[in-house]
Each structure stands twice: as structure tokens, then as C-alpha cells.
Amino acid sequence: MFCQNLKHSRFCLQISISMASSGETARESIDARSDNQKQQQKKKNRAGAEDLQIEGYPIGGLSIAGHETCVIMPSLNLAFDIGKCPQRAISQQFLFISHGHMDHIGGLPMYVATRGLYRMAPPTIIVPKVIKESVEKLFEAHMAMDHSELEHTLVGLDVGEEFCVRKDLKVRAFKTYHVIPSQGYIVYSVKQKLKQEYSGRPGAELKSLRLLGVEITNTYTTPEIAFTGDTMSDFITDVDNADALRAKILIMEVIENALSALPPPLSGRVFALTNGF
Ligand SMILES: [Zn+2]
């Protein structure tokens, strides 16, 4: 069980996983409810009411092994993996794909096509560099079939490389351990703070210094969220992945009944994302 070793992350988000032997899945559990309950669920999901709120971040999504994994961070305008392209993922501008298994990437053309249909800005899709060429071919095939543009920006990112989502937010890929090439992502907040020696100086002076190219601020980055995608627990002992374990929120898949086996230090810090969209 992964979480026992995670001493640094403040919160661990367990996304529901259904192993062949682990009994009832989250999806089955939802479908077992009455039609009325399902309707109410749909309404709530549209409003985002079912999002978990952790460390100030709303988080939605689901993960059922072999079927669909998609986790969205609506306040950051991004999603991790696309699963079968659930409705709420479409409104996210940035998409980070962990690996090429169908349950993580299958909905990709639909995601791009639906954003085009709604006349939303073309999305930016970040994939492991090693699969970028295959993803390009995938889009070429779809564009040839339906004679559409499928406008998007595709970025190949290697482990250790960073992508700037916005001035105060960047994402770094980290190594995960799976049966095919895969990587996780760490979201960092980026803050600029005035260097002490410039503290108290008038604004106009600081502006002139900036214009002269003087570096008057220090940059501070904080690992906020880490998403592993599919991985064996080896990612925990990889020294290059220290920030994944230091992140305020770690999103990972674990076997469904593992929550009950958590040691006391982790109780109240682990949340299960089981409601889907
Ligand atoms: Zn996989």
C-alpha cells in the first residue's frame, strides 16, 4: 500500500480503482442507486458540487482501472488524463496525459473535437515525448476521416522537463513505473518576492531597476499537486521524485479496500474520489 510511506504529502487523494479481484467498482456502486438519486447526482456533477475540496483546490474525476481515468482541477483549468472524455473535462484548457493506455488517452480526439464544436479555444495537450509522434498520427487519421481541423497544440514533455501553464503555475513531468512508458506530473505554484535589499524602495525606482534588467525578485516554487497515473510503488523511492511526495496533494490510484488499512498518521488525510462526474 503506497500511502504508508508518504510522510511528506499533506494529503493523499485515492482515486477509485477497480482491480479484477477487488469487488464492486465505484461505477457499479453509483449505478446501483435509484433513478432519482442518479438524476440528482447528474445535476450536482454539472455544478461541480461533488468535487472534493482539498487544500483549497476543487478536484473532480474518476478512475476505474482498464476503463477510464480522468482527474480535473477546474480552478487550474487543467485535467490529468482524459479517459473517455467526460463532459466536464472538455472545459479544461490544458490536458496532461500520463501514458498511452486506452483508459487514459482514449477520449483524446473527442476532447479536441468537442472543444472545436463548442468554439472553445484550441486546447494544449501535453504528452510523454516518446508517444508524441504516435499521437500526431492519431490526429492525422481522424482529420483525414472527418475532414476537420481538430485544432490543438501538442507538446511532448520528457521526465524532468517543465511546461509553463501560466506565469504563476508550472508543471514538471516525473518518472513513474508502469508496463509502458509513463510519467506523472507535479504542479508548482510560482511566486516572485522582492529581494530584501530592495524592500521599502519606491515603486518608480523598482520599475526603473526592472527596466534596466536588474533581478529584483527571488522566485519561490512550491509543489502543490502531484498526479501519478498508473505506476508501481517504485516511484516513491526514486530520489528524483521527492517533490511528488512533498506536494500538498498527491493523486494516485490504490486498491479500493486499502483505505481501511491506513495507519493513524494518515487518517483524515486520505480522500477517495469515487463519485465520478
Ligand atoms: Zn496503464
Automatic annotation (TrEMBL):
Signal peptide: none annotated. It comes from the Eukaryota. Residues 26-36 have a biased composition (Basic and acidic residues). Residues 93-193 form the Metallo-beta-lactamase domain. Residues 26-49 are annotated as: Disordered. This is Metallo-beta-lactamase domain-containing protein.
